[in-house]
Amino acid sequence: MTIYHIALRADWAAATAATAAGANAGEYRVSTRGRSLEEQGFIHASTTVQVAGVANAFYADLAAEDLVVLVIDTDRLTAELKYDPVPGAAEPFPHIYGPLNVDAVVGLAELGRDAEGRYTFEG
């Protein structure tokens, strides 16, 4: 199964650079914009249909070029994955309860913008 995590492009680049240098044991530790895994307790993720809503709610002020969507293969995760209810959301959101191992990220996707400037996502 595939889930997604919206990342600041600079945060993802730092994680992959550290991994290449042999540091951090190949881990990404950002929960969401401005919050670490240690602060939040888990890493926020989304299903395909949830990505655009999250982008518009929390990243609307950023340029699409500043963001990247991590494509995560849940079978490769080394941390526990739970689907938690979120107040006001129709469906539970996937949360990764531990560091995201870089090798679970099987691709990168981009966010688009519609004519009104709202983020879109095709998956």
TrEMBL record:
It holds the Pfam family DUF952. This is DUF952 domain-containing protein.
